[in-house]
Every structure is written in structure tokens, then in C-alpha cells.
Amino acid sequence: MNKNFAIIMYFLVGFYLIVIPFWPVWEGLNPSNLSLLALGVFAIMGGVIVLYDKYTFSLKLYKLILALLSLIEGILIIDIFINSFTHNDFIIYIILMLTGLLTIIFIIAIIYFLVNKREISKIQRGFELIDQSKYQEACDYFDKYVKSDPENPLAWSGKAVALLKLNKYEEALECSNIALDIKLSLNKFLVKKTINVIQLSSKGLALAGLKRYDEALDYFDKVLKMNPKYLVALNARACVLAKLKNYDEALKIINKAQKLSPKNAYILDTKAYILSGLGKSDEALQYYQKAIDINPHNEEIHYNKGKTHKKLQQYNAALDCFDESLNINPNFEDAVKAKNVVMKLIEK
Fold it and tell me: Were both Cys, which of 70, 81, 186, 333 would link to 36 (CB 3.0–4.6 Å)?
């Protein structure tokens, strides 16, 4: 079953579940009417089909809810068919009506999910390029997107993140401001919270890049009030606190983020940075290595690991890290400078 067909099928089953609670009224609540039996059987079949579908894994929770509602309605309406219309059957019928109401709520929720996924997927490629350290390519991708759709706040936010990676902090801040100023269209208004989280995060990151740390923290706090489990904001807030030498508070936040996503390379990298600041360099190196094992293609993690080796006067190990960083991104200026310093130290 392909994805589009599966989603259409979910909506049809949902619509069916909304309609059938009213069918007994139209049929005069006649328990001998075989149409009730057919309705119940079809409802159960709908639930089984939804559970059987293995294509749309991203809709797993919605599938389970829809299947459960289908089974409940099927069993209840068959019970009405089997038994005479007694007081107990009336209670069952009320429950049946409630399942129809729950199905309406379910349909609204799944529409929200699909719109949200569609909006995010439009610019997903750009963020994938950032994860691959292809920052200029990502910037070009977002640039083309904002030219074709200048009212897309997610594209402007994505461009801001790409510019940050290119150390173009003022331009990044400008893009994040544009993203925040855009009035959302109806389809984007349905996912306003998701978009606002990304908009505010990108501005916070831009401010952090400009070393305006207190302002950056304000934006990350706004994000975390909206979504306390948003990893980007948790990670960024911990990183900024570490830059302000507030390592203990930073460690609390990054530990929370790590519990939410234990195999996130960026979170492990930040935790290593914090541990290094706390003087726990050996433990920091372990976390850097864990981050590299998960994402070996991020030049910043190799660079950060090299700085810790340098701090421990392990210059050859530091040089290897800086070389690896530059193999990934030859234009990484910080790594170039650090490599030159380490080479001079080795020559002494």
C-alpha cells in the first residue's frame, strides 16, 4: 500500500466512523436490521486494515488510535444489533456517539500532522546539507527557495542557520528577523507553534554567533516555554551558558537534552565542551569520540576535540584532529589557525 493511498484510506475510515453512530437513528434503532451488523463488521475490518498497513510508520500513533476507535465502534454497534434496545444499549449508544466525536478530533489531529510534515519537508534538504557540512550549498539552496517563495519563514530561518555556519553572523541575524516578520498564511498558521520555534531558535543562534549571549538566552527561553523538549534550543542554551562560564547550569541542561536524545552527536559535542570547561578533559575526550563515532563528517566536533588535546599538551593528537577537520572543510578558518599554532608548538 503506497503512502498516499494509505492516508486516503485513513481518512475514509475516519469519515466512516463519524457517520455510523448516526446510522441507527436513521434506521429507527431496529436491532433486527442487518445493516447494523454490516456496519459493525465493516468498522472492525477498517481497524484491521489500518493496523495491517506497514507503510506509513510516521503515522504510527495515529494508526493505533484509528484502529482502536474502529474496533470499539464495531463491537458496540454489533452489541446493539445482538441485544434488544434496552437501557444498557442506550448507554452503549452514547459511548458510540463519543467515539464518533473522538474520531473528529483524530481527523483534526492528523490534518495538523500532515500539514506540519509538508511544511517541514519543503526545506528539509537544506538542513540535510548543513548536517553534511555543505554550508555554502545549503545557503544556495535556501536562497533559491526564498526567491521562489519569499513568504516562507522556514526557508529564511534555514538560510540564517547556513549563514551562521559560514560565519556571516550579521546576514544570519537579518534573515532570522525577516523570518519573524512574515505573517503566516492559513496552511502555515495550522503549524504556527512549530514555525515559531524554528524562527526564534534561528534568531537566538544568530545572536549567539554575534556574542550577544544574554539576548540569545532570552530567545532560547522563549522557545523552551513553547516546547521544553526542543533539542536545538536546549543544546544552544547549554552552549551559551558554557561560553558565559556557567558550566554547572550548562551541564544540567545538556544532561536533560542527552536523556531525550542519547545518540545526538551535537548534544554529545556540547557536553564534551562543557566537561572540558569544568576541567574534566579526559571525560570530555570520551564524549567527543562518541560524537565523532555517530557523525564523523562534522568538522566542528573534530576541531573541538583537537582543542582539548591541545589543552592537555597532546599536540600530535591535536594536529590529527585539526587535519581531519580541514579534510572535511578546507575553509574552516579556526581550524587553520589552530593547526598553525600546534605545528609551531610541535617544532619547539
Answer: 81
The fold of the 123-212 domain, in CATH, is 1.25.40
195, 119 Cβ separation under 8 angstroms: yes
Q: Which residues of the chain have pLDDT under 50?
A: 1-3, 26, 28-32, 34, 50, 53-58, 87, 186
The pLDDT score that the predictor gives to residue 172 is 92
Q: How far apart (Å, rounded) are the C-alpha atoms in residues 187 and 240?
A: 34
Domain ranges of the chain: 3-121, 123-212, 297-348
Give the cell for residue 199.
524562527
191: Cβ contacts below 8 Å, ≥ 6 apart: 112, 115, 116, 119
Say what the pLDDT of residue 38 is: 52
